[in-house]
Amino acid sequence: MEITTEMVKELRQATNAGIMDCKKALQEAQGDMTKATEILREKGLSVAAKKAERETKQGMIENYTHAGNKVAALVEVNCETDFVARTDEFKELAHDLAMQVVAARPRYVKKEDVPADVIAAELAAYRAEVEGKPERIIEQILQGKLAKFYEDNCLMEQAFIKDPEIKVKDLVTRKIAAFGENIVVRRFVRFELGELDK
Question: Nearest to residue 94, comparing CAs of 114, 113, 73, 108?
């Protein structure tokens, strides 16, 4: 099957992958857009995994203030080079992440940042809720509730506000593949007028 420029363009818009990567994926998928998207997603995951150990000392601190000036966020997003940090795409990613913090109110960047005592307290509360249920399903219920806790409270596990079909970590992984550099969301802070520190 002939791979047209329009097909490559459509796949590139959908995935943010490079032109040659889109063309190769379409050739491998014999023109099937869904299959080509999956090929690029898998490639992006492997690229991201290879780059995960690289140092990220460049980047930016982005802010977002919601209309009405009553809630705002600062987010530090790091990358490997100043060149990538200055691109519009990187700035857009950082801005989207700051908007995500304002809208979705995460408490932690990733699952690994949640303190052990918080997890223990959550599990204890869930265990009390499932008291009396058969032992064989209690563990499944606890893991499901803990996964939901992570989705609600960890930025990287949240559904992305601009595309709820993907998680924030998937968005970052796609950007790692597109930029060819490791990207790390280092930290964030969220301010809301009248809200006291917890």
Answer: 73
Integer CA distances (angstroms), 25 to 5, 15, 21, in order? 13, 11, 6
Helices (H), the chain: 5-15, 19-28, 33-51, 82-85, 88-104, 116-129, 135-153, 168-179
pLDDT digits (tens, 9 = 90+) for 144-172: 999 999 999 999 999 999 999 999 999 99
Host domain of residue 133: 115-152
**How does pLDDT run across 17-49, given as a tens digit for each residue?**
667 778 888 888 888 888 887 877 777 655 555
Query: pTM of this prediction?
Result: 0.70
Tell whether 198 is covered by a domain: no
CATH no. for residue 20?
1.10.8.10
Q: How far apart are alpha carbons 178 and 196 in whole angstroms?
A: 39
**What CATH number is attached to the domain comprising 79?**
3.30.479.20
- Same domain for 92 and 163, yes or no, is yes
* DSSP letters for 144-195: HHHHHHHHHHBGGGSEETTEEEEEHHHHHHHHHHHHTS--EEEEEEEEETTP
Number of structural domains in the chain = 3
